[in-house]
Amino acid sequence: MMDAQLFMAIFRDKHFFDLKRLRHKYGAGAVDEAIELLKATVYRRLAIKDFQGQPLVFCPSFINIQDDTYKALLSGDNGEPYSIARMEEEIDSTLAIENIYSSRSSIQNILRGAAPKNSEEDRIYGIKRGLDFIADKSNQITTENLHRLYMMAIGDYLDENEKLLPGNYYRHDSVYVVGSTVFHRGLEHGLLKQYMDEFISFINTKDDLGVIVKSAVIHFYFSYLHPYFDGNGRMARMVQLWYLIQNDYHAALLVSFSQLIKNSKSQYYKAFELVEGNAEVSKIIDVTPFLNYFNKNVFSKLIGQKNNRNLLELFQRHVTDGRITVKEKELFIFVLSNYDRAEFSTKQLEKDYKNAAYATIRSFVLKFTELGLLSAQKYGNKTKYRIKEY
């Protein structure tokens, strides 16, 4: 029986979710015994399975994601448009995460309706088509629609050796994720139909995971299965967003999740590697490191490092009362995700946001100060603003 003090030391270690490091520090026997205790008492099983047929798990007690807080920010009326400015950021960022070059001028040309002129603009046009497709809530998440999304967003623009075979929904051979080493092999291609059918059923089944947590699980699992030869990361990010929209988090269209991921790209890939590395020790896929990554580097950026529930509740009341327009909502989400608690001027916001005239910015900060969502501080004849703290 493990010593209680040793177990608590392991449990409280800041590297708790790096099992190889814990083994080096506390010894293999102690860490293996701690893992067995976790399996018996803490882990929650998910209705999706690893390559050996065992359920994936996570530790709810280590995931501090308050779904209601994010719903107050990201819920909204069906039909909110995908912001052009955010679409530009999303396209640029989702390609950049995978080291695919795209110029801002090419993205802007495609978003203005120009026909693609080369392979770079083909890729941009594909992502735009995909984002337009998932923004329409009538396009539900089904096997057929997933294939449609892949082909329009990515599959139609691949080299011949990376394309799906005619009639195939998924790849017909093995695929490897390669960094400095091979750190992941996708699911055996002969099992993809079965696993993807079960995965789509999981996506569409109502449960008590919470929409935000489940969206991150979906993102991880899509990448884990790796159903295509190319474009799996871009698809994982789009399917996560698609799931949020399908569950009435329509204002997710006003946020570039990929930009937040790009800003923490090394931690993003490290989270995948941690899950894989830990599984070598525990023989179980625990997605907690990936959920922790998303909470710290993506979700929390939408509301600032402080979980200001009172601010978001006030914001939601104003939205419900019709006092805040869609354009103003987009601006406020931009402020939350880009400035956190830092001060900003109207000129700085105009420059950073890039999608509103100065008069619109000026009107926004004055109105949101009056609504109690921003605070103003004068410095001589200049005024700076910040998110109001409650």
Question: Which descriptors apply to this entry?
Answer:
single chain; mainly alpha; Fic-like fold; Arc Repressor Mutant, subunit A; 55% helix; globular
Q: Could you describe the 3D structure shown?
A:
With 390 residues, the protein is mainly alpha-helical. The chain has three domains: 1-41, no CATH class; 67-302, Fic-like fold, CATH 1.10.3290; 309-387, Arc Repressor Mutant, subunit A, CATH 1.10.10. Helices cover 55% and strands 7% of the residues. It has 18 helices and six strands. It has helices at residues 4-12, 19-26, 28-41, 67-74, 84-97, 104-111, 119-135, 143-153, 192-204, 211-225, 232-246, 257-262, 265-282, 288-299, 309-320, 326-339, 346-353, 358-370; strands spanning 44-49, 55-58, 176-178, 182-185, 374-379, 382-387. The strands form three sheets. A two-stranded antiparallel sheet has the order 1-2. It has a two-stranded antiparallel sheet with strand order 3-4. β5 (374-379) and β6 (382-387) form a beta hairpin. The longest helix is centred in the last third of the chain and has 18 residues, at 265-282.
